[in-house]
């Protein structure tokens, strides 16, 4: 599971600056819509800005959380000492737990997006 996220993060890594620009632009548009615009503009543009910010942030965090992770723990059989093995097992467990949490976050985001868009 972590290997899939690692491959996805490595595929998204070249566009990480674009994802950051999308997040900043969406956050700025949300701020502008909430503070300076009237209700008709808020009804039309606030939900797409919120969803763009949500997905841009999820992909940006995925890109920086999982890029280059699996290569550091590939030589599990060459670990000497009980403390090094314990650190390896804890690291793989928490990476697995983080992957599960990320899957739940993506499922919740899909659910929220579909509810908001009315699909």
End-to-end Cα distance, whole Å, is 28 Å
Rounded to an integer in angstroms, the radius of gyration calculated over CA atoms is 19 Å
* Estimated structural class: mainly alpha
Reading the helices and strands in chain order gives HHHH
Mean pLDDT across the residues is 84
Per DSSP, what share of the residues sits in E-state strands of 2 or more residues? under 5%
| Largest sheet properties | none
**Unreliably modeled segments:** none
Number of helices: 4
Outline? elongated
In short:
The chain has 119 residues and is mainly α.
Description of the molecule:
- The protein has 119 residues and is mainly α.
- The chain has one domain.
- Helix content is 80%, strand content 0%.
- It has 4 helices and no strands.
- It is elongated and about 65 Å long.
- It starts with a helix and ends with a helix.
Main features:
single chain; 119 residues; mainly alpha; 4 helices
Architecture blueprint of SSEs:
Blueprint: H1 2-12, H2 16-35, H3 39-66, H4 82-117
């Amino acid at each position: 599971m972590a290997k899939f996220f690692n491959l996805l993060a490595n595929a998204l890594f070249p566009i990480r600056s674009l994802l950051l620009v999308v997040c900043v632009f969406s956050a700025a548009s949300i701020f502008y819509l909430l503070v300076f615009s009237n209700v008709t503009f808020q009804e039309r543009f606030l939900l797409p800005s919120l969803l763009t910010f949500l997905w841009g942030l999820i992909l940006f965090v995925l890109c920086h959380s999982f890029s280059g992770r699996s290569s550091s723990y590939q030589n599990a059989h060459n670990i000497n000492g009980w403390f090094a093995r314990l650190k390896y097992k804890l690291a793989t467990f928490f990476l697995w737990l983080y992957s599960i949490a990320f899957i739940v976050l993506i499922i919740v985001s899909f659910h929220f997006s579909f509810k908001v868009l009315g699909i």
